[in-house]
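Extended Data, panel c. Modelled sequence:
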Amino acid sequence: MPPRLSRRTLFRAAAALGVAGAAGAWQLSVDSPADRVHLTSRARLPEPFTLPLTVPPVLAPERRDDTTDYYRIVQRAANVTVLPGYSTPIWGYNGIFPGPTIVSNRARRTVVTHRNELPVPVVVHLHGGHVPEESDGYPTDLLYPVGGSHEEMADMMGGPDPSAHTMFGERDYTYPDGQPAAALWYHDHRMDFTGPAVWRGLAGFHLVVDDAERRLGLPGGARDLPLMLADRAFDEDGAFTYPAIDPTMTHTPGVTGKFGRGVLGDVVLVNGVPWPAHRVDTARYRLRLLNGSNARVYRLRFDRRGGSLPIVQIGSDGGLLARPRELTELTIAPGERYDVVVDFSDCAVGDQVTVYNDLGAGTTTRVLRFDIAERVRDTAVVPDRLTDFETLDRRTAVATRRFAFRQGKAGGMRGWVINGRAYDPRTPIARPTLGQVEVWQLSTDLDHPIHLHLNQFQVLTRDGRAPRAADGGWKDTLYLPATGMAEIAVRFTDYAGRFVLHCHNLEHEDMAMMATFGTVAGIAT
């Protein structure tokens, strides 16, 4: 039996905001990595580029029928080796970090059964998934631990959200077929405690593939690498450190001190390995980049002998671009994914290509290194045309909505709010009509990566000008720097229900910077 949790209401945004304000989270007036507080590891850290990159294992389905692939994942505590010579306690999907990779075929339905053997409730969100409400991972749709009781649930819930889809022990998440090929990811999304849960290890890749993408001739097999970037810090025993007010994750949400701005570590992990090195051939490699960090933004640059190696972007959060686009650097915020091809064919055997983070400081300026090990003949290509792409026309928009992501007051407390409101699952901030195009205007005071559930969107403008080079394609997460503004075009489809938009700085999300919207088949309001 998991430990009994004390009674609490899920609707305590004001309390969380008050804790953050009292802790001094609002004393800084500008937003840059140098201004933020960084955790400092006390364990012995390895030298960069001395450990090999690993790739999360692909999970095999338990069974298949004519239409559906069935998977099973157990969420449990485990001990893993992250730093050499230490054992790090994690919460992991199947006890590993990152979790196992699920590869779904676009033509088939996917059902994933999650079993909760952790001591706290969990919620699974397929980030970027086009799925119905009951499988989206709404923050109050809790899966309680194995062995829980209805009395325990009533004690934890306090009856505030009668619409929540709650279960005990195990839960099936159903992901319909038809989603375009894309690099998605799954992670915990429990209200108030997403930050510490993801920090402890609850994150993994979910790749959607299809035959059309396979026929393009893009790099595949060992040259198709999913790469999850995630910063962490370690105590003297090699455990993850996190400045939680309540380390048990059972009572009070939030973080201490100035970490309300977002928790940053001093060790950059790639697929759970600190500053790894990876042996590559003189060939093109497809890198599916995911920022799985709580709050850190990276600006990636591939450096060979003091010069930048081109980055060819072929996809974004929601799948392939219409055409490839060459970049010299790439900014990636929490929750964002970029599908890129890097060509090592002009490198010599023995060359080293280092990936730098130009937004980092000290130990976080370096990410990983590619070591050129063998000359080969490469048959992979990057076609000039990748996919047919529908452009949403703002002239067809039926509504324009404004969402301001700000510090503000809610219930008399200072905190993170959207349109001046702290998160309330009961009250939708908007009711868009399924099938209709809308323009959403997003604005920020400080840095905020903004994420929409249910459907991807297209970026129309940034600060009244054209989007950035990497903004193309279908996105579900958009990074807005301090005092930024963007217009996006979005069209929600297929599933009526309640979903959320929120800041994907997980500490901001946990401190109420989230809002519910309800998709409807009637008249928009």
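The CA atoms of residues 64 and 70 lie 6 Å apart. This feature is highlighted in the accompanying rendering.
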